[in-house]
Amino acid sequence: MIKKEKSITELNASISRVDEICRSNNLGFTDIRRQVFEIIIKNNKPIKAYEILDEIRNITNKPSHPPTVYRAIDFLIENGFVHKLNSINSFVGCFHPKTHEECYFLICKKCNLYQECCDDSLKDRISKTAVHNKFVISNTTLEIEGHCLDCSQK
Ligand SMILES: [Zn+2]
Ligand SMILES: [Zn+2]
Questions:
Q1: Which of 65, 119, 128, 149 has a Cα-to-Cα distance from 34 of 20 to 30 A?
Q2: What is the pTM of this model?
Q3: Would you kindly state where each structural domain of the chain is located, as residue ranges?
C-alpha cells in the first residue's frame, strides 16, 4: 500500500456528493453534520472522536457539545458517509458514498495509513453466508491489519 494524499478536488467532490445525497433524500445536512464530515474527510488518517471534538472547538471557538457531535457522527455513519474502524476506534470518510454497502479496509498498524477497498465477490460471499445462517446484516466493515510499503521496509 502506497501513501497518497487526497487532492482538494477529490475532497470537494465528496463533500458536494454528500450534499447532493442529503438533498435528494431529504436528510438535513446541518452545519454541525457538515463540519464533522469535513473534519473527517480532510484528515488523511483515521480520526478519533476526541480529535473531532478538538477540531470543532477550534472552528467555532466555543466549547464543543459532545452529544451533538456524537449524534452528527452517528448520522454520517448511518448514511454511509463515514466508516467506523473498530479496531482502532477511529473514523474515516467515505470517498464513494452510496456506491457500495460492503467495503474493507487495509490498515497499517504502524502509521495508521488506510485504504478503502470494495469487492463485489466478497459482498456476494458475505450475503450468501448470512442467508445460509439466517442472519440479517445491518452493516459490514472488514478491517485487515498489516503494514504499508513504507513501514514494511523500515
Ligand atoms: Zn465507503
Ligand atoms: Zn505504515
A1: 119
A2: 0.85
A3: 8-153
